[in-house]
Design brief:
- The protein is mainly β.
- The chain has one domain: Neuraminidase (6 Propeller), CATH 2.120.10.
- 5% of the residues lie in helices and 42% in strands.
- It has two helices and 27 strands.
- The radius of gyration is 18 Å and the shape is globular.
Length: 333
Amino acid sequence: MTHSRRSVLAASLALFAAPASAWAATTPRIRRLSPKLDGIIAPGTQPEVIATGIQWAEGPLWVPRGGYLLFSDPPANIVRRWQPGRGVSVALDPSGAGGTDPTLVREPGANGLALDADGRLLIANSGGRTIDRVDLATGRRTVLADRYAGKRFSSPNDLHVARDGSIWFTDPPYGLTGGDKSLLREQPVHGVYRRRPGGTVHLIDGSLTRPNGISMSPDERQLYVSVSDEVAPRIMAYDLDASGTASARRILLDARPMLAKGGQGLPDGMKVATDGTLICSVPGGMMLMTPKAEPLGLIEHGAPIANCAFGEGGRALFLAANDRILRVSLRGS
């Protein structure tokens, strides 16, 4: 994509940013930006609120074997479960690191969640500064990665599991009190990493200021990373070869115009549908867009929306929306 095309897309997206407001959630709605959205979300569909009272909602994950949704609350150090007909309950407490010093650790709990091929829970443990695996049947926890080049991670934020079992994850400083200036910080960069199935961790990109959400195209030839930088908010794209080597780094979406128009939040979590549609957090809400960053729709509620997940066999989209969880019905696959 050329710079001029990116500029045109950024300018058009600025028109869709939510108006400036306090972080007080309003009635959620879906803004149709292209007729193509109708193939994903039926006209007239309205988001429903299924959980409230969350300090900061993150990491939604549908668990098919149990038919329930997990979602994290990093500052509260809890992972909760929502199940249709049963409501909300606590699944993990603590979800991350227990007994942390709040003067050093701002977010002690789990952030991003994923499942491995065997249905075990994977956690970006912000407070523990690790990537963990949890057996949902027994509760047994195993640390899969805690260091790169001998230095501890800062606060792993989000993760994506590739078909070969590799775990791709981001490590910004959000979980540390003081961020870049934290006394606990050991890594010289805020990295995008890949943990291979054998346990070896590789640095994919150490140049991003605030790497956050991470996902891949269905064919795993494209890697997407959100950058939650207040000065330069954007979504990056990379080409991946058969070995997983990343190249041709480029800006897929420049979110500065959306932020300048008052859109709440920054690029954060994302997921990619089986047809390649990106559902990504942007200033103003959760954007649905094509792999070429053509906007299709915007889900908004007057406050940041941090992350999302597909569930119910592709019939629903769940959104971690500030202090609540939203559910949007999809047409399904």
